[in-house]
Amino acid sequence: MPAHRSTQLQPRPIVVFDGDCGLCNGFVAWLIRRDPQAHFLIAGSAGEVGRAALSAMGLPLEIAQSTLVIARPEGPALKSDASLTVAAGLTWPWRVLARAARAVPRRARDRVYDAIAARRPRRPAEDAACGTPPPGLVDQWRARLASLEDVAALTAR
Length: 157
Description:
Layout: E1 14-17, H1 22-34, E2 41-44, H2 48-56, E3 69-71, E4 77-78, H3 79-88, H4 94-101, H5 106-118, H6 138-143, H7 148-154
Helix pairs in contact: 2-7, 3-4
């Protein structure tokens, strides 16, 4: 797996998620399985790194309690844009599906996102700062955890 610290030329986007959300944890597990090139890093919103990423993006800390956030050098992606940013960073068929979904107006996409988020399962994570990895993904999950150095790299430009 590629190193994700300062050896990278481009800072990698950081997926900031609610570690106490079953749907969010499931999404991160889905992402790790479909992102073998480790394009995205992860950070639970309750931890120091997640809070630093939100602050670096100029967002209130409580936003991640109901919204997926992708911290990127060009600024944050939220809600449906965050989901599509992830899909666009993956390979076939996700990239094509993301492109097609962007044809739907953001307002409509975000209404669907909000309806799903309102019904998401809540469950206490062992460590809300990084969520709860499925047993088969523990090592990959931990290898994807962003650091404060990764957050600083997003805003260093």
